[in-house]
Amino acid sequence: MAGRIRQADVDEVKARTNIADIIGERVALKSAGVGSMKGLCPFHDERSPSFNVRAQAGFYHCFGCGESGDVYTFLRQMDHVSFTEAVERLAGRIGFTLHYDDGGAAAPETSGRSRLYAANAAAAEWFRAQLSIPEAEAARSFLGGRGFDAASAAHFGVGYAPKGWSSLRDALKTKGFTDDEMVAAGLLSQGQRGVYDRFRGRLIWPIRDVTGQVIGFGARKLYDDDQGPKYLNTPETIIYKKSQVLYGLDLAKRDISRQHRVVVVEGYTDVMACHLAGVTTAIATCGTAFGSDHITVLRRVMGDSDVSGEVVFTFDPDAAGQKAALRAFSEEKRFAAQTYVAVAPGGLDPCDLRVQRGDGAVRSLMDAKTPMFEFVIEQRLAGYDLASVEGRVGALRAAAPIVADIRDPSLRPGYTRVLARKLGLELGEVSAAVERAARGGGPRHPSSAPAAPAPAASADTGETPVPRVTLATLPRTADVALERDAIMGVLQYGHAVDADMLDPALALPFHHPALEAIRRAVVEHPDRTRIGWSGAVVESVREPYRTLAAELLTADFPARTEAGAIASTADLARRLRLRVVEREKTELLGHIQRVAADSDGGRSVRLRLRELDMERARLTAE
After folding, report:
1. How buried is 622 (Cβ within 10 angstroms: 0-12 exposed, 13-18 middle, 19+ buried)?
2. Which of 5, 19, 66, 194 is 20 to 30 A from 471 via CA?
3. What is the pLDDT of residues 479-495, one digit of tens each?
4. Coil/strand/helix, residue 430
5. Alpha carbons 459 and 455: distance in angstroms, whole number
6. Tens digit of each residue's pLDDT (9 = 90 or more) over 195-216
């Protein structure tokens, strides 16, 4: 087993890795000022972006929940990997060979999540190769009948699982994987007589996470003698959680982020058909209903912070499809984006629509979408006899809350009139019902950031800990503002400012205790040219001041350009030194009134005042 990774390699991998690229695979990041990017936090649910990333510093911080750290911390938190696994993953990504304290290079992973990823990747490659064997004719015919050629299958990594009970097992054994690892990865099942291939005689789709790593598989049966379900997925594993997995997201994420639009379809072939038809933001759930965890994942990827985005659901017009639509509507309030429903003519799903009518019909389906609430209103009204008074009253009670729940207040009056017309009721009566529904409902959206929890008492002492200091809790005084902006500039741009300018300013004590603690941490890390030095400063600060340090490193610095930020940081350092000069001069001017002008004390004060004036003039001229 390899020893500890050499620290020089750990630092080198971090220096070569752009943290914004890594986080950007999970979160849609937008520019938020000079050198800063912002997106929806991946660690808590929020409506407005409060998650800041500063690529130059290799650091992130969420102003909502307080999570912060470097690229290794991010991977450890998101993927639940060890520090070593995080370093090894990034090293592999950039092609860097790691060295260990025992003198060796990287040894093959023999345990943990990395082995499950490796096993799934090897299985995906093997399944894909089996699609070309003679036995896979049924699989190729299935694909061809749905309009997918060999190139389409290759693009999505589609494969075939042979009928044998141990074909995959035998293949992966030759690659060094154990039965325990394959069971843990969901590739083998455990029976009374031992382990056997979970997928047999089936068409296989690899399911990838948002970063493109294979985490599981979806499999459709092809043969009549297969007694299993029509679709069989990987079971829950430590890397495959079906409530959080979306098929096709790895391919769609870039366009979802750019277009702020996502299309939710019902199956693997529908995703393939949409992408091949040019609807490249299509995704699908994997063996489970679309739920709140899926919404959380999508919102981060699309940057869902306002009503400009679009989420389009495609449903079959049958009873099951209507049930799915109503279930989706119960969750759609979690989106800031507008939600729509697209139902193809004749009840065709996107795959069949493409086969029968071509790519253009699939694109037109998305353009002919209906607002989700309008679709649901129609579904609600369909259950009532609108020819009777009782039916119309019941329909009004069922549909009024839907209209009341429309996010855009400018649309609500129009749909109130539509509902009145459909029901044949007076507008005033329907408006009153909508208003009652609006007053009776709870808040539509969760808060943009979680409420700050009350400080918990210490288990050891029973005492309430000191509350954390944040930018929001700093006093609003000129002195504090100067110290705050100066230390913010140093953390973000100190590497680019002349040390002869900064060091004398950083040697001066700050007045606010939190900012003074951060200043001392900066002084203790003098090598500001080292990659990641500012992150190291933050890590060295202890609570209740660490959160403030993280905020100062990632907050928007008040400058329009990087050159302006560097110049402003130098100026703030100069003002810190001027502040000391001005205060000493003020004190001496008061003191000189109390001593005789011709005394030694008086002459000494006047000499010092002249020196201060010269120092002030020099600093002012810099």
Report:
1. exposed
2. 19
3. 999 999 999 999 999 98
4. helix
5. 12
6. 999 999 999 999 999 889 999 9
